[in-house]
Every structure is written in structure tokens, then in C-alpha cells.
Amino acid sequence: MVHEWALAESILLYIENQGVRRARRVVVKIGVLQSIDREILEFALREISRERGLEINEFTILEEEPLLKCNRCGFQWSIDPSKISEDIREAIHFLPESIYAYFRCPNCGSIDFEIVKGRGLGEIKVENYE
Amino acid sequence: MKTMSRDPRVLKAIKNLSEIQRVYLVISSKGGVGKTTISTLLALYEASRNRMTGLLDLDFVNPSTHVFLGLKPEELKYEEEKGVKPYTVKNNLFYFSIVSYTRDKPIALRGREAVNALWEILAIVNWGPLHSLFIDTPPGIGDEHVELLYTLKDKTKPIVVSTPSKLSLNSIEKLIQILKEAGFREIYLLENMGDGSLQNYAEENKLVYLGYIPKSSRLEESIGNTEKLLELDVATYIYNILSKLS
Ligand SMILES: Nc1ncnc2c1ncn2[C@@H]1O[C@H](COP(=O)(O)OP(=O)(O)OP(=O)(O)O)[C@@H](O)[C@H]1O
Ligand SMILES: [Mg+2]
Ligand SMILES: [Zn+2]
Questions:
Q1: For labelling alongside A60, which of B41, B84, B89, B244 has CA 20 to 30 A away?
Q2: CATH of the domain at A13
Q3: Is B219 in the pocket of ligand 1 (CB under 6 A)?
Q4: pTM to 2 decimal places
């Protein structure tokens, strides 16, 4: 799985675009649904920072549990990607919206639900030096 | 401390697309006028002229370009390399569709989810240095169209597809207005299943008329077979359109 590299580059292009070239720490929230490998992501963040000449002392990757909510009946639930079959997990890794092809609301069976949080790349925070 | 909210994948998407010389968004507010047919045929014929060409299916609800190309969802595999590489259909023709992940199961995405899926795909697929990329889109003017049109305004060119029918023209009028308001200077009009009668319409509305493709009697039997599709009765019309694009 090498989705991590594309996300790492997205993160760095993004903070660079905000004028950040050095920082004490960058904190990235990652949704568990996408089964992102934190070690690979961190490695990719370091590699790409080095290539682009960014000086970031520390990366912290926080995980966010998935939360799904049915638009029909309001039921809320979570999914543990480590418990689903490998090919479906891989589909969701590349495209979290694939979830709509394989899951329904466990309460009413509706296919109309939303991913409230824990999808994939989330909030990015930059902590500058004083 | 600084918190950022705008989607970080957008810049990566723009970087990926910047390697491509021309990106065409095949759109129409009207359903069934031939967007899928045209995006697939233009990509196929362009590739046959020895140009590196991409075809991207962004119709998440009803993806169907793979049917045209004769590809089964389970045989579509993308090589992974710091993201994914599109599938090589044949010489010079590169392809990406979500059906390899969704396996032809229906997915009903709301606007926010469609936009999310859109940026994810544009950020992870590494097309490489293509000459042109044709993007098939769903009918209507959804959030994903608006998002693409506004964010990628400098990078994409819209090809509006219409049949000569009054119903189709009536429907695309609003779309054309949106495109003009979004700041597109060049808006292409492609007349499908027609006879050239939209040329005047294009001129009156300051659209760039790409020409027309007549109704083909051989299209249906050729769907799923790229060799047959390259020998359609309407082939010269397709080549004509491509020569106007480049
Ligand atoms: N030039 C043509 N000659 C003959 N048949 C055509 C032509 N163009 C399109 N068709 C046929 O018309 C039908 C609709 O075409 P197509 O699916 O490409 O439209 P669409 O705009 O993509 O539809 P949707 O809005 O549902 O995505 C198909 O059966 C297709 O084979
Ligand atoms: Mg279509
Ligand atoms: Zn429900």
C-alpha cells in the first residue's frame, strides 16, 4: 500500500503553500477507515520534506476512529477495518467512498449514510518555533 | 499554532495534472446525450494517433467507460508507485475508473462524498506526462462539477456535449452560463447524434464549435471491442474533432 506517499506529498505541498518552510512540529490527523500505515506515512513525510528542503523537526500522526451515521434513521456506528476482508479493505484504502459499495446501515439497511469522521486525511496543525 | 482547513489534496491533484498538456472535462447537464461515448471515443482515437492519452471516469454513480473498452472491473488493476499508476488499456491509452474498487456495485454518493472521492482520485493517480486527458462526468451539474470547474479552471477545458434536440439545448443553457461565470473563455461545444445544425447555436453563444458526430449504426455492436470502435462509420468525424482540439 503506497497511498501514504500521495497523502504525504499532499500534506507537505499544503503547508508549504501556507508559507511554512520550517516548523517545530506538524500534527496530522488520519482516519482509521483508510488503514493508513503510520510508519510509512511518517517515513514518506520525512523523505519528501528532505527532498523539498523543508525543516520539520517532528511529525505526529494522530488516529481518528471512524464514525458513520445513517441519513435515514440516524443510527451511528463504527467500522474496524482490520476486521474486514482484505480486498475490501484495500478498496477502502485507495478510495474510502468504496465503503458505499459494501456496507449498509446495520440498523435499517439503508445505503444512505455518511462518514462523519475518521475517513482519511484530516486536520493538519503546524507548531512553529517561538 | 496554525490550523488549516482547505483540502490538502487539491495541490497534489493540481501537481499531478500539471504534467498533462491538455485536460478536457466532458460535460452536459442533460443525461444520455453521449458524454461517455464521446469521452471514450476521443481518448481511443487520440491514442491511435500515437499520443499519450488518458481516460478518467468520474461518473461514480454510473461508471460505464469500462464497458465501452471491454474491461471487467476485476481485471482492472493499478500498479502502485507512490500512489497508483493508471491501467494501460493498449498502446498510449491509460485509464482509471473506480469500478476496480467498487466492483460495479451501485454507490449513491451525496455531494460531499463525491467531492471527497474526486480529490482522493486526482491526488493519488499519477498519470505521468500525457498529451491529453479526457474526463467523463455524470449528467447534471453536481457539486463535483462545480468543484472541478472552479478549482481547475486554468487547467481544464470543458467540452459541452449536446444533441440537436431542443430539450438538450434548453438544458445546457444553464450549464453554459455557469461556465461563463466561472471565467472559462474557451467553451467547446460538441454536437452528438446530429448533422451540423448546432453550428449557428455555437456562434450565437460564443462557444467554440468542435463539429458533430452523426448517429452511428455500428456503435452498439462495437461497444466492448476497441478494434471495432476504431473502425466506426463515424471515424472521420471523430478525427476531425481531434484535429480541432490540437
Ligand atoms: N453518435 C452516436 N451514434 C449512435 N449511438 C450513440 C451515439 N452517441 C451515443 N450513442 C448511444 O446513446 C446512448 C447514450 O450514450 P452515453 O451513455 O454515452 O450518454 P451519456 O451522456 O454518457 O449518458 P449519462 O448521462 O447517463 O451518463 C448509448 O446507448 C450510446 O451507445
Ligand atoms: Mg455517461
Ligand atoms: Zn439506518
A1: B84
A2: 3.30.2320.50
A3: yes
A4: 0.94
